[in-house]
Amino acid sequence: MNGARSACFAGCDPLGSAKLEAEATTSRGQSKVKRKPCGRFLGTLAILACLVVSACATAQHPKATGQISYDAFMRLANDTRKAGDLVSAAQFYTRAHELEPDRIEPLLNLGQVYAQAGTPGDAAGAYEEALKIDDKNPEALRGLANLQLQTGDAASAATNLRLALAQQPDWRTQNSLGVADDMLGDRAGAQAAYRAGLALSPGNLQLINNLGLSLVLAGDFGQGLPILEQVSKDPAATPRMRLNLALAYGLAGQPDKAAQIARADLDAAKVEQNLGYYEFLRLLHNRNAIAAILGAHQVETAQP
């Protein structure tokens, strides 16, 4: 693939929802990733049992050894991932990849686990290795693009997301493409992407939230505020979604309303801090800068 695929990771959340530290640097032609050590996995009974099974299979059925060992490590990886042991899961997926280097599934799972564990450099590396096996794989393209969004490389992310959509329609890819377009200042393109995602996943709160936020960033408070109000009242709404509504009222020059909404999730000191921040953004007038600074859009998160 081209230089659009190289990825790194940085960002912050002024609203207080999350903080992400810089992990890597990016060039257009090649990723320069500072890898975090994953840590050595101390031998467990599960690994020992797996290796014993593999050894027995080698003695009795040499031709079947690779397949049996691969399946065993994938099962162990999936089970430990579900149990929340991401370090062990990553090592099991790595072992499965070593046994079957032409299969893409371990690498896709590795990318997800590393992203979930907060090691984006390793996640990018896993997705890039997956793309060497299948350069049109939509899951690898979307995973890498989401890392690029976190580093602010919206142009590269948009390229990879459009490649992914050419292979397979997916609301998650449309959502990420909308975020990329919003970061690039293409409000019409962003809103079209969110609406295309809603056609695939009606009622999806992430998409609705991002659509409302995009309308607000475009200055269309008449349409954007009611949409964000609708999202905030949903029982499944997250604190970030409610704080996006507070932000929208702040940008609209209604600090009292913004404070009322923010108090549902923040203490008094944090509410005052956010009100000052909303006013700063309102006076900034640069909507592209606001979108980049905020990181308020909802992009998919890795799940166990």
Account of the 3D structure:
The structure is a single chain. The protein is mainly α. The chain has a domain at about 170-304: Tetratricopeptide repeat domain (Serine Threonine Protein Phosphatase 5, Tetratricopeptide repeat), CATH 1.25.40. About 65% of the residues lie in helices and about 5% in strands. The protein contains 15 helices and four strands. The protein has helices at about 45-60, 65-80, 85-100, 105-115, 120-135, 140-150, 155-165, 170-185, 185-200, 205-215, 220-230, 240-250, 255-260, 270-285, 285-295, and strands at about 10, 20, 25, 30-35. The strands form two sheets. Strands 1-2 form a two-stranded antiparallel ribbon. A two-stranded antiparallel sheet has the order 3-4. Helix 2 runs antiparallel to helix 3. The longest helix is centred in the N-terminal third of the chain and has 18 residues, at about 65-80. The two termini are about 30 Å apart.
